[in-house]
Amino acid sequence: MVVQLACGAIQGVDAFRVDLEVDYSRQGMPSFVMVGLAEGAVRESRERVLKALQNSGFRLPPGRITVNLAPADRRKEGSAYDLPLALGLLAASGTLPAEALQGWFFAAELSLDGRLKAVPGALSLALLAREEKARGVLVAPENGAEAALAEGVSVFAPRTLAEAAAFLAGRTELVPVEASCAEEEGNFVLDLSDVKGQEKAKRAMEVAAAGAHNLLFIGPPGSGKTMLARRMSGILPPLSLEESLEVTKIYSVARMLDGKGLIVERPFRTPHHSDSSVSLIGGGVPPHPGEVSLAHRGVLFLDELPEFQRQALEVLRQPLEQGRVFISRAAYAVSYPADFMLLAAMNPCPCGYSTDARHECTCTAQAKARYRARLSGPLLDRIDMHVEVPAVSYEEIRSRRPADSSAHVRERVMRARDIQTERYRGTNCRTNADLSGRMLEEYCRLGEAEHEFLGNAVNALALSARAYTRILRVARTIADLEGAEDLSLAHIAEAISCRVLDRGQI
Hints:
The protein is an alpha/beta fold. It is about 35% helix and about 15% strand. The protein is elongated.
């Protein structure tokens, strides 16, 4: 007897349908054969499943068992096929009605005693089931909350194989799992008002958050670069529902959801400077999302930027432009979303004090040149804003002058984002950082005076076409923060002032 069940396989962060077919025959010598490009964990499922069936009280008579995973030309990895395989064997042997499995999607690993265990990508599978108009999805209890985020499809989370079989046979009832949020939007412990002084840097953070621009802080040790960066999350707007689902899918595939539901706050990732290019960009065997994908719709903070391996930094160039990572290896080709805001910090020189009048810089000209050479021109060109963070004076440290809180700055940022959402409705643009081509010309129109001013700056500073584009994008955001329709000289001048490396001031 041949039985077919629906399950799914993960490619990137999305799932594609896999039909698991089980043929069970009492004729001939007992055997177990699995075909369909099954990788190691899938092939090993035979021992787990047979023991789980036995320890769950099911008796499977000896027979010739053939299992096919279709489509047979696409690789299948992981342990999510344990549950559908066990149920398929029960149906093929006559223990479970075959029609009871039709229209359902299944994904769970089995322990030897028959308990269901979590697998990565449950949300992606549930979204696939919704697209296929399935009756429902059966997953492990730890995966229930995330799978239930796919509204429009029922999700059930039996604890054991026996409970799953009884539910499908109609001998017991299960309550559908309800969706939940992993985080609640609330007060941030790290508030921007805690930072003394650094008004220009705070202004740069506000502009960067409002337009999703990349930002580099440059300053001596102890000036507050990292302190500022860690407060960026407090001024960013919360994720929309669509963005939350995108981020949650990535964390589910990366096994980092920990049984929680929807992620509603933007990710803030801080990889160490010793991380490899694979850790940043993703890949490996089996492939997994890297830091740039875990920072999707959020912030990737690279502290001590020149200390990262040059090769690791250079792989950031493509995702910074395209918002997506494409990884092609001999065994696979996958892509992951990677639309993040890059936030970085660095010292101006190896000793760190070349811009601090209170300390003597001990670096030679050659040492400074080698230090700067760790960052390539093409990479720096992709960073919209380079802002100096000077040393803080004692008077500023002791100042009791009130400063804007993260909540107040966030309100202004959200107003600017609302303007952009309305302006770009119906287009591929989300924020000003996405502007390019005709849209850049349409929404960043300049008068004669502005054209002349910007042209003189481009020629004097020898700016590239990419730098010109990024200046216009930043100027557009500055205008949005002011509620201005047209770009003025002041907006362009402030945008140019936020590129200190181009101006040769450091």
